[in-house]
Amino acid sequence: MFQIEEELKKLPAQPGVYIMHDDKDEIIYVGKAISLKNRVRQYFQSSRGKTAKIEQMVSRIARFEYIVTDSELEALVLECNLIKEHRPRYNTMLKDDKTYPYIKVTVSEDFPRILFSRQMKKDRNKYFGPFTSAGAVKDTIDLIHKIYRIRTCSRRLPQDIGKDRPCLYYHIHQCDAPCQGYISQEEYGQSVRQALDFLGGRYDTVMNYLEEKMLAASDAMEFEKAIEYRELLGSVRKVAQKQKITSQSMEDRDIIAMAKDERDAVVQVFFVRDGRLIGREHFHMNLSAEEEDNQILNSFVKQFYAGTPFVPREIWVQEELEDAEVISRFLTARRGQKVRIVVPKKGQKEQLVELAQKNARMVLSQDKEKIKREELRTTGAMNQIGEWLSLEKVRRIEAYDISNISGFESVGSMVVYEDGRPKRNDYRKFRIRTVQGPNDYASMREVILRRFSHGMEEAEKLRAEGTDLELGSFTRFPDLLMMDGGRGQVNIALDVLRELKLDIPVCGMVKDDNHRTRGLYYHNVEIPIDRHSEGFKLITRIQDEAHRFAIEYHRSLRSKEQVHSVLDDIKGIGPARRKSLLRTFKTIEDIRDAGVDELAAAPGMSRASAEAVYAFFRNGQPQDDKKEKL
């Protein structure tokens, strides 16, 4: 038995990481400390200064453990790794787990390539980035290939020169085919150096070059070439336009600011590389109550830079970070150069941080509006349906439909919506067993009876085993049954539920002459509904989904029936031999016309099976007039 008071006495006065567990042994919080003894004891001391979040967390702690480190810096690294691994509920968490694209130039090769990469490795190659848009990176690489004709293949050069034909890119003038020796290593290297200049932001040279080429082609009345150069020039100008200079200093820096409300926070990051703003990105943080701005930023910076391969020279933030010094040392070790964390106080630097904060506020506001719209569309719509039917709580709705063609292969579908969203893992399909012919009422009765009988049997079995009923696939019963029809369908469902002694509300979706829902049939009354309401739109989605699911299942069964071949009626011909015959002879007519020796020559066919096929088609058996192909 873990005795918290006794374990507190054993804590060392050394730096390290502490890990809090609840009574289910789940990790609920990870923190670091300069002195584990002082820091961990603070949680269990009575103090008026504790936040509601800390009070709630402490009330759930069943035990704690700790790992001693040699320094606070080591504790910071370990804390970041453990938070990323376990994602504890009481840690302020970075929701996003993104990897950023880079442009990789394989200068370690004799004939370098320019590639898209998600990782920056410590190798002898050059990397540009990170960039926030994978699409923009691919467009830039494509542009470089067109301008500088850099190879895209993975051939080993110069070892593989002349071993194979040049690829398509040579023929469309986007590669000079170094694989054939059509360009020397020195000339190719010059093209690569120009591409590196381009990636470094020196666009003037290539724009002047393309403009000269365009004018020369125009003067020579080679208008197709002139248009090609004009389009390339336009693409370069677009890239140059995106890379506006942010400041006169050519530094790499990230500018970080945040905005928050009661539950969420958004952190905005501007990425500045070589003095140019190359992009921005926002990140959502799970937030606990009473979290201060500097604590949120502190958590973000630690988690973000523990996961990104590139660390800039400077990081500008809107608030002083609690662990600024140790974070700076951690990032300095990762970068291999001094990393400064700066809080700008005036001038253009402060304005850039304010701009990032303004963007964060805008994203947060937009997301809140989006969340409100989604809530109206889902839980709001469910509540509206509940109000129409005078039901206190409607969280789970099950809807049913029957599909058949003149009674052929009748099937039933069950779709489930929870909190206004489809819960596809709980969808079920039923192949009708007891009903012959097109009898939708009898088919629906079978479906409802099987669904709830199975659920009750499964619940009884789980209770006997002492297992949670939530683990059953049929044990969760709905708050409302929704039938794809009016009084008849509703009465069928109510009869089955009475038979099983279940009390579940049932309503029907009443349709007008155009087969569109006009109201709900409930307690022998048709309730009109507003066709412009979110509740009506949700009912329509549920109805369409039940219909779609039933039709898809029915279609799949029909297609399986249609695959049945006349060959399946021949004794000794199974799926493998049927496939072999069709591959060899292509059509049923060709099989029918073949002799015994020809049939026996097909792979997998024996003499006896060939004679059986031959006899089948010569003894007046039914024949398939349609050609059957693989």
CATH class category of the largest domain: Alpha Beta
Number of domains: 5
Strand content: 15-25%
Shape: extended
Q: Ends: how far apart? A: 68 Å
- Please give the CATH architecture of the largest domain: 2-Layer Sandwich
Overall strand count:
20
Helix/sheet category? alpha+beta
Biggest sheet character: 8 strands, mixed
Helix content: 40-55%
Radius of gyration: 35 Å
Mean pLDDT: 81
Counting H and I runs of at least 4 residues, what is the number of helices?
20
- The CATH H-level superfamily of the largest domain is UvrC, RNAse H endonuclease domain
The low-confidence runs, each spanning 5 or more residues with pLDDT under 50, are 242-248, 620-630
Would you kindly provide a written description of the structure presented here, covering whatever features stand out?
The model is unreliable at 242-248 and 620-630 (pLDDT under 50). The protein has helices at residues 4-9, 36-43, 52-60, 72-86, 134-148, 168-171, 185-199, 204-219, 223-242, 293-307, 324-335, 347-377, 379-388, 440-465, 487-499, 534-562, 575-585, 588-593, 596-600, 607-618, and strands at residues 16-21, 27-33, 63-68, 93-94, 102-105, 114-117, 126-128, 253-260, 264-273, 276-286, 314-317, 340-342, 396-405, 408-418, 421-422, 428-431, 480-483, 506-511, 517-522, 525-528. α5 packs antiparallel against α9 and α8 packs antiparallel against α9. It has 630 residues and is of the alpha+beta class. The chain is 44% helix and 18% strand. It folds into 5 domains: 4-91, GIY-YIG endonuclease; 102-201, no CATH class; 253-374, Nucleotidyltransferase, domain 5 (2-Layer Sandwich), CATH 3.30.420; 383-560, UvrC, RNAse H endonuclease domain (Nucleotidyltransferase, domain 5, 2-Layer Sandwich), CATH 3.30.420; 566-618, DNA polymerase, domain 1 (Orthogonal Bundle), CATH 1.10.150.20. Strands 13, 14, 15, 16, 17, 18, 19 and 20 form an 8-stranded mixed sheet that branches. A hairpin with a 5-residue loop joins β1 and β2. It starts with a helix and ends in a 12-residue tail after the last helix. It is built from 20 helices and 20 strands.
